[in-house]
Amino acid sequence: MAAHAVEEHTHTSASKYIQIAVVLFALTALEVLLYEACFGHLKESMPGLASSLGPYFVQLLLILSAFKFWLVAMFYMHLKFDMKVLSWVFGFSLVIASVVILALIALFTYNRTLWWIGGVKW
Amino acid sequence: MPTPHNTEAAATMTTAVIDHHDAPEHEEHHSSMPIDNRKLAIWTFIGSECLFFASLISTFLVYRGQSLKGPGPKDIFSVPLVTFGTAVLLFSSFFVVMALNGAQEGNRKKLITWLSLTVLAGCFFIGMQVYEFSHFYHEGMGYTTNLFSASFYTLTGFHGTHVAIGTLWLATVLKDAIKGNVPKEKALNLELAALYWHFVDVVWIIIFPVVYLMSLGS
């Protein structure tokens, strides 16, 4: 069993790990560049880029983060090569976590709206 | 009264129990599923940690922009410092996966080298966070200054605590590796610590854009 597990993990070679590290680093650099282009030092030198990317700043950041998350979970945490039950355990937790985040944001936004019109104070 | 036959049987059973504990198979902690119990346990634990950080992240998000007084994110955050810390944490995930690769190949030198780098990266990240927190404090942002400070310190502080625990865990595995106690058959000991370390990394992958970049960009 242990030998089988080792065999499974060595499917990912060191060069693959290096490639993923480079991609992760590049994506992080892209996130910072995106911020700099929309709101930071590059905004004045590239006003066209800032105005076109600015409205999608949050969405783009979330997509980049989700891709980084996926890369680490699949390759560094070996979910791609491990038993499916582990992916289900992690995936189920992520679904519940997402529901918790969305539910809390929805609840507080709703209460805040009521507060603004003179309703509930919190 | 114990008969010679009973005594012999008891001795045989005792030997069997001792043999069972000494056997390498005992290290694998098998369950009815074809997967190691400890691995399933760490993944379940990671699942519960997802909920923990989800509650902290959502608290930060619902309190965003609700502070009645400063300082706010734009007054204190330093993008270059945090970006550097993020890069170090990302690379530490690469370091630990290389260390695991070394452990699974039975390459002790590779294991110790990469694991040492991981522990160093963990220490650097903790140092960066201590520096950042003390800098913010001197800038006038205490824990109870406003909603932003309370939710920021709680979220990043708990993450930093997780990094510290992960660093300690990896350091104990490194100590074992230096002593030669992490052979190829016991690579799972490192894999469990590595899984926890990667989880800490993926949480930061979310925290960095959500807490730092989005707060500055809003």
Structure description:
The complex is a heterodimer of chains A (122) and B (218). Helix content of chain A is 76%, strand content 0%. Chain A has helices at 2-9, 14-38, 47-53, 57-76, 84-116. With 218 residues, chain B is mainly α. Helices cover 78% and strands 0% of the residues of chain B. Chain B is built from seven helices and no strands. Chain B is elongated. Chain B starts with a helix and ends with a helix. The model of chain B is unreliable at 12-26 (pLDDT under 50).
Tags for this entry?
heterodimer, A: 122 residues, mainly alpha, 5 helices, 0% strand, disordered N terminus, B: 218 residues
Explain briefly what this protein structure is.
Chain A has 122 residues and is mainly α. Helix content of chain A is 76%, strand content 0%. Chain B has helices spanning 4-22, 37-62, 73-76, 79-105, 108-138, 147-179, 187-217.
Protein topology:
The complex is a heterodimer of chains A (122) and B (218).
Chain A: H1 2-9, H2 14-38, H3 47-53, H4 57-76, H5 84-116
Chain B: H1 4-22, H2 37-62, H3 73-76, H4 79-105, H5 108-138, H6 147-179, H7 187-217
Helix pairs in contact in B: 2-6, 2-7, 4-5, 4-7, 5-6, 6-7
Which shape of chain B, going by the Cα principal axes?
Answer: elongated
Instruction: Tell how many strands the DSSP assignment of chain B holds.
Output: 0
Q: Report how far the terminal alpha carbons of chain A are from each other.
A: 55 Å
Give the topology string of chain A: H per helix, E per strand.
Answer: HHHHH
Helix content of chain A: over 70%
Distance between the termini of chain B: 83 Å
Give me the strand/helix succession of chain B.
Answer: HHHHHHH
* Overall pLDDT confidence of chain A: 83
Strand content of chain B: under 5%
Mean pLDDT of chain B: 87
Tally of DSSP β-strands of chain A: 0
Helix content of chain B: over 70%
- Please compute the radius of gyration of chain B using only Cα atoms: 23 Å
Biggest interface, and residues per chain?
Answer: A-B, 51 and 56 residues
Unreliable runs of chain B, pLDDT <50, ≥5 residues?
Answer: 12-26
Low-confidence stretches of chain A: 1-8
Major sheet summary line of chain B:
none
